[in-house]
Amino acid sequence: MPVTSAVTAARTILTSLHEVMASRSHAQAKLNTVVETIGESLDSEVCSIYLLREGMLELFATKGLAQEAVHVTRMGVGEGLVGTIAEDIETLNLAEATAHPDFSYRPETGEEKFHSFAGVPIVRRERAVGVLCVQHADPRRYEEVEIEALQTVAMVLSELISNAGLVDDEAVALGPQQTGPVRLAGLSLVKGLATGHAVYHQPRITIEHVMAEDRDAELQRVYLAFDKMREQIERMQAQAEFGVGGEHEEVLETYKMFAYDEGWSRRIIEAIDSGLTAEAAIERVQQRTRMRMRQIDDPLLADRMHDLEDLSNRLLRIVSGQMGTAASQGLRSDTILIARNLGPAELLEYDKRRLKGVVLEEGSLTAHVVIVARAMGVPVLGRTRGLRGAVRDGDLLLLDAERGEVIVRPNDAMVEAFDGRFAKTKQRAVAYAALRDVEPFTRDGTRITVMMNAGLRDDMPNLALAGADGVGLFRTEFQFLVSATLPARERQTRLYRDVLDIAGDKPVVFRTVDIGGDKVLPYLRHNDGEHEENPAMGWRALRVALDREGLLKVQARSLLEAAAGRTLNVMFPMVSEPWEFDAAKEVFESQRRYLKGQKKLLPEAIRYGAMLEVPALAETLDILAPNLSFLSIGTNDLTQFLFAADRSNPKLAERYDWLSVSIMRFLKRVQTSLIGHPIDVTVCGEMGGRRLEALALLGIGIRRLSITPAAVGPIKELVRKVDLAELGAAMNDWLLSPPASLRENLSQWAAIREIEVD
Ligand code: PEP
Ligand code: MG
Question: Which CATH number fits domain 3-174: 1.25.40.10, 3.50.50.60, 3.40.1280.10, 3.30.450.40?
Fold first, then answer.
């Protein structure tokens, strides 16, 4: 075929299609002309269009096949070559069609004399709504330029089809099988139930116009968009902004590489040259990338392709002027947010009153975004497969993060069943609230201290609502995370003072900033631009604070001033060796001396504590203990280090159990080694808020927990049902000679005693 390039081929076709589209003829007549035009341009004996109608792919127009077959030949999605193209949203290019395992012969079409076959999906909103194919008597594969021309035409057809209302728009948005209810399974990251309407964190952009009116104007738009996108990336990098949107440095590096990739921009420009609008051209190239992505087996390369997809979306948002996340557009009431992943700061941008739940494609139990959601009382389902394909903006969702599923577009019966369960959980919440003023004594009379974790001023009313004994962990870095710039000393002081005021007589343990890891600050030049292979084990928390003493000094001063006339409880995160604790304490002490010199009112007492998160510290606790007022075991980090399993890696989210013998033995050893020291020992990781895990902790001698506010009621209820002596003996036996599953044994132990643990 005398095609010089895909561009000229597509342009020739598009020019004639333009006329067809502009004509006033009926949609069917247009399709008939389209198949003639394409067949001729691609020198093919056959050109056919199949469209999705009532869940079947129906032959709508053909040049070369028997005309009697039009509106008669129908294939299921997944059936025959055409059905396979629609199902996989993938191009087929075959020299010998009959040799393909999916070939299905339709006698009414008279297609037996044709050997070669090429077909492309007609896609709308990421769904195949039809198939465009060409066939030829000679057994030859179509050339790449011809396939590309076909793909471009398919985009134009998608616009024609939608404008003409040839396929049901509902079906377009969702695909044939997905107009009804769909259940998607996921991992419960924050338990709870919610109903609401789906909102994509990054709204999808629907391309309305595919064919360009003015090619130069489209080129201009795309050039400008490229410039703007490159500027954005440069700016992010210049600020070492490896935090925005969960993008870290490595991702930015890749973004930069793609942003300047000439191949990518050239392909977009070529697509515009062939007659597409800027948006359609970007989408066209993205479609091609997606198709290639499916063939990639290398996970690393697939990740890179994901980055290109993200970048392509960014370009599309710039060019279409639809910037910003759903947060910047404001939420309607009762929203369930849908995202691939989120950073903690991004989640905090949402209106708490309207955000009812979050469904993520990724996510893990101890990722900070999940901790924030837990603190906000928003249920989260993570690792949800097939999310983007199944959920459309505005869909009604029933989020069941108790069972680990979300129901999309439920029917009435599903809504009714769900409402029943929802009502029960609300009743339970009322029952927990009644425990607010009840002190949690075990059956054998031991008072367990149940404190709560917090991080923002907004969390503080929960203290009274939940009836917690105090704040066992105040994550001060949250203020840093939600600020656009480094919070000045006055702002820090104001927050800490407010928190203490709200807490009244109840103690608050302030943890000094724990940044780094998955808590990155866009405005703080972190690590001098150096790439960290393993940020969770990298330069974070106290390590940063001791190296950037200015940061810690300001915080020390803010805390000392805020706690004037009261007791200040301060705790250092990620202490790995005793000297780090001593050095951090000295920063506070020197600030205290300074303030004293200034005749400022000082705290009545300062209690210093350390977090046990790094296993190495357990070996030197005897050295550290005499200097401590309290120790708090951060099991989120501790367990990731014990198992060498990244806490935010979704692939490892379910691999290791908190109720493993190794973790429980380790914790018991730590607890036992501190007996006799006048030190409060608390567990403040997420595991303490889960009932079965809390039971295990009580069983190894832990008497203080600091947990998410929503868990305070359920844990109090649990405590009141436990006989510690009996539980301690059982745990002791199991840890000495472990059963096959500690979780299983403990669950049975609880079930026999009618202690609810989930
Ligand atoms: C922990 O690591 O267990 C902890 C409580 O701290 P964070 O989750 O903030 O790292
Ligand atoms: Mg930690």
Answer: 3.30.450.40
